[in-house]
Write a structure and sequence with these properties.
The chain has 23 helices and 11 strands. By secondary structure, the chain is of the alpha+beta class. It has 4 domains: 115 residues, no CATH class; 164 residues, no CATH class; 115 residues, no CATH class; 81 residues, no CATH class.
């Protein structure tokens, strides 16, 4: 892995100028690396974060991907991560014209990362630097605690999808001045003086260190400063996040265990909290990316198409570009291509806004001829899609704009499967062309972790009681015992899980679905289940 050449960097900077002229907004500094196929295979399990902590599952994933690659060689054209500065990776065999297209796509992603409100919790720190500090801290813990560090990582990762992302995002949205002054204020005024009671000499040295970083690069000074703080004080981030919260904060499951477990609160087990905090913060960082896959890829695809098609450097490569672009953004009749759906939804919203079809005047029309020919030529399309980029997630995009008009326009449909006994094959058929059915199919593909919370009234030092809110989808039963055993270890006592399971009964040769409340109990490393 190496930085791109100065020749290629010059091309990227020219792309930045054209992208900014078109309205995209992003920080000046970016880093671009050339990577080999081997690099991509090794980075992919770490979600392309080179400094992410080491964990045995990553090694297993590398071996699995290497096996897949031998059977079917494949690599992405690019990968970009939401860091400060933004870092992107490129195949080592791309010609210049292809890099221009890819650079525009990457700049679309960076613009999305740095302006979409769901990413607000990632704007304050450079996650690559934070991850490096975390990696070093975990490596130090391994020298003292050996394999127990990996046990804690594994148990924490089994429930790291239960983090309270939206609750934390709400806090960030209510504190727009958080970066940079409030965090620095808490560190110097509360943490060093009140909690740690450090000598004045250390206090002044820290001020000088921050000022020096500020002189070098004001854009990343705070993130670099707190990366070093985290190495010296791994508990700082958790204390800072708790600072100023309500007396009865809204805990997610992982956070509640970390703060209230009698087992973890023992002095000899305090180190485990740092590991759990790293797992939780890593999960929190990736939450917005998981929830914006379709709109993010659609936004980037929209801009690489618009900017490259108007770039004089496309001359002579129109056919090659059309072939690659169609492969990336063509609609899948079976399955889902997020690039294709996201791109067409962005274009659809732009067209609606340009014609004035998002205004109340159009919504009141009930004449089909007037509806079809309505066009106020407002010119508000670009303004509207930039608002879309700022405020929408995959769910809100799909739920708001997948209409019958959109489905008909692109000849979209829901595909069903049935077994042909005569031919002994699975047949695919068009199940529905209704917008509501297609919308629901898309929504069903989105990330939606189970709603699980702590029942504080039935929880005490000897028992942790967890409740699952049933949303017509049961927990994966095969995973429940192992997850509960991990939580039992972290809590140091009995763990109860109340959930709902779906049972299928046959009545008069018809399948009838019934819901049953069940209680799982993990105690003394054994898991039992009973009906409630």
């Amino acid at each position: 892995m190496e930085l791109i050449s100065q020749h290629t960097k010059k091309i990227m900077e020219e792309c930045k100028e054209r992208a900014r002229d078109a309205g995209l907004q992003f920080a000046d500094e970016t880093l671009e690396y050339i990577v080999t196929n081997k690099d991509l295979l090794e980075l992919s399990p770490k979600v392309m974060i080179p400094t992410l902590y080491d964990y045995w599952v990553h090694d297993v994933e590398v071996l699995k991907e290497q096996g897949k690659y031998k059977l079917s060689p494949h690599n992405p054209y690019e990968t970009v991560i939401n860091s400060r500065p933004a870092i992107s990776f490129y195949n080592d065999n791309n010609p210049d014209w292809l890099n221009i297209m890819i650079f525009y796509h990457v700049l679309g992603h960076i613009d999305f990362f740095q302006n979409n409100e769901l990413f607000r919790n990632t704007w304050n720190d450079d996650f690559v630097g934070v991850a490096l500090a975390d990696k070093r801290h975990i490596a130090n813990l391994r020298t003292n605690h050996g394999r127990w560090v990996d046990y804690v990582i594994e148990f924490a990762r089994s429930i790291d999808n239960l983090v309270g992302y939206f609750e934390k995002l709400h806090d960030y949205n209510n504190k727009p001045s958080l970066f940079p002054s409030k965090k620095l204020s808490y560190y110097f005024e509360n943490f060093l003086q009140v909690i740690k009671k450090t000598p004045l000499s250390f206090y002044y040295n820290e001020i000088d260190r921050y000022n020096e970083l500020l002189k070098q690069n004001k854009n990343v000074a705070e993130s670099l400063f707190f990366s070093t703080v985290k190495e010296k004080y791994p508990e700082f981030q958790a204390l800072y996040e708790k600072h100023g919260e309500d007396e009865d904060p809204k805990y997610d499951v992982l956070e509640y265990i970390m703060d209230n477990s009698p087992f973890l609160n023992k002095e000899k087990n305090q180190w485990m909290k740092a590991v759990i905090s790293i797992v939780r913060n890593t999960s929190m960082y990736f939450q917005p990316q998981i929830r914006t896959k379709i709109i993010n890829e659609g936004w980037a695809s929209y801009w690489h198409d618009n900017l490259f098609c108007t770039d004089p450097r496309i001359k002579g490569h129109e056919t090659s570009y059309a072939k690659i672009n169609s492969g990336v953004t063509s609609l899948s009749r079976v399955g889902l291509n997020p690039y294709a759906i996201g791109l067409r939804l962005v274009q659809y919203v732009e067209d609606l806004a340009n014609k004035g079809k998002m205004e109340r005047e159009f919504q009141k029309l009930n004449n089909s001829e007037l509806i079809e020919n309505f066009d106020k030529k407002t010119g508000k399309g670009k303004e509207t899609i930039f608002e879309l980029r700022k405020n929408f997630s995959d769910f809100t995009l799909i739920n708001t704009f997948v209409s019958q008009d959109f489905v008909d326009m692109h000849n979209l449909f829901v595909v069903g499967q049935r077994y042909d006994e005569q031919r002994d094959v699975i047949q695919y058929y068009i199940k529905s062309k209704k917008a509501e059915d297609y919308k629901q199919m898309l929504i069903n593909t989105l990330y939606h972790p189970p709603r699980v919370f702590i029942d504080k009234e039935r929880t005490d030092e000897k028992r942790l009681f967890i409740k699952h809110t049933f949303e017509s989808k049961q927990l994966i039963q095969d995973f429940i015992p192992d997850v509960l055993l991990g939580i039992e270890f972290l809590w140091g006592g009995e763990v109860n899980l109340e959930t709902t399971e779906i049972h299928v009964k046959k009545i008069s040769n018809q399948e009838v679905f019934e819901n049953y409340k069940v209680l799982y109990t993990a105690k003394d490393r054994k898991v039992m289940k009973q009906n409630v």
